[in-house]
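Suppose a colleague, Dr. K., hands you the sequence of a protein chain of 70 amino acids and asks what its three-dimensional shape might be. Before reaching for any lab equipment, you can write down a predicted structure in token form. Begin with the sequence itself:
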Amino acid sequence: MSIEAKKRLIDRIVQDPSFRQQLKVDPEGTIQHSGLDLTEEEYTSVVAGIDLSLPDDQLQERLSKRQVLG
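The predicted structure, expressed as tokens, is then:
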């Protein structure tokens, strides 16, 4: 599994409010149309355990911590 691919997805979720909102509404479709070349395993690895229903500020905080921790 590509650590770089997971990092790109987390970066995009943290930095792009529009992408984050689209991901909440249609996770699979958003990833497919994002230009991020992720396998299903990579995508699942990142979003597993992430509560996309959290408010943006809480979601950003958790993902930022997750990125730092690896």
